[in-house]
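Hi again,

Forgot to attach this to my earlier email, sorry! This is the prediction with flavin-adenine dinucleotide bound. I've pasted everything inline since the attachment limit keeps bouncing my files.
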Amino acid sequence: MNAYGLDARLTALGRQAYEWSADLRAAAQALDEEPDSIEDFLDLPGVRCLGTFGIPPGYAEPLTIGRHSYHGTTALERVVMTENLARGDMGLVLAAPGVSMSGVLMEQLGDQEQRDRFYGAVAASPTWTSFALTEPDRGSDASAITTALRRGGDGGFLLTGAKRYIGNGCRARFVSVLARTRPGPLGVTAVLVDTGRPGYRAEPLPTLGLRGARLSAVHLDDVEVEPWQVLGRHLSPARRGIWSCVQVFNRLRPTVAALALGVAAATHDYLAERRRFATGTDRDRIEDLGIRIAATRALVHRAAADVDATGRGRVASAAKARACALAEDVTLAACGLLGPAARANHPVLDKLVRDARGAEFMEGTRNIQHLNLFQGLLANETEVDLR
Ligand SMILES: Cc1cc2nc3c(=O)[nH]c(=O)nc-3n(C[C@H](O)[C@H](O)[C@H](O)COP(=O)(O)OP(=O)(O)OC[C@H]3O[C@@H](n4cnc5c(N)ncnc54)[C@H](O)[C@@H]3O)c2cc1C
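Structure tokens for the complex follow:
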């Protein structure tokens, strides 16, 4: 075990991903300026690896490093990979093809046919996938979903509604859409939409940060859904509705924390390099930020291990809240420590400041994470050192 609770296998994974992150760093500005240039970066080893990371055994070859192999199907593997690649560029990590959030949903809800079709397609060639919960005017409150799934002809269904801020929505071949079949928490269902079907339309939204991720507005106008596309069809409504959303978010939250941590670490690397000869309080501040990064990394790893062991996401809420606060603090401190007009003089820093803000909103803001954490503490579900 190293200082962050990682064994030799995970340490090797982190080292490899860190090595790959240099290519992502070099590509970051180009992707930020022209998000459609993602096609130019599909052969970078880190991006290629994300294309199949998260696909379970049997569908794709694992990533192999020395005598170790990895499928990316545990939260701990995902956070180690994600933090280190995000140290290169968080935007490129989000812009990469792969199973991403839909993979975690498929793990929870997919039956054999759904898994074969989904993982088979993503393993065959670089394929973008998206996860669509958030709606205009409704936000990401799963209980407030209005997108409707209703019966159509030939035993199938029709999907109607709108989603917003959907990462890669305009690039995706498959989108997992959360929809409503009837009022109440048991009326929420996930469907795997094939974006080639008539009625699916997505356009990219202009964003300040994470431009490569192509957050999109998605329009669903009577999109045909075949019975096989209804995820969790073999499960009871109680196991496939909002419960499944909570399970997915619990498992993904440490990865979002790792993205924010990657931004913080990238900024710290950049700052430490440019202020190598800092003295006095400046040097102390840079060192303090490094200590906070190390402590948050340990918490993120603990959160991932906890989710892998229990499926619960309370520690992950603490980790996500802390990592996002850290990303914001480190980027803003770097603006102060790199002198007047730092953002204008350091385009890399300017981008890191914008990206850190994006991480704060992904998968629930800090306020929502604090609520989740304290509900867990009140219910005696977890003990977290809040200092
Ligand atoms: C980079 C990025 C990528 C994204 N990707 C996706 C995606 O792929 N798929 C998808 O479905 N969505 C995606 N989203 C949307 C994202 O999940 C939501 O925007 C986010 O969860 C916030 O939810 P909301 O918009 O409902 O805002 P709210 O949760 O309503 O928050 C709005 C404000 O109110 C505050 N607030 C809310 N409730 C409380 C409370 N009880 N107490 C105190 N303060 C409160 C919040 O802190 C925040 O400041 C993405 C967003 C971003 C920025």
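The two ends are 24 Å apart (CA to CA). The first strand starts at residue 63 and ends at 65.

That should be everything now.

G.
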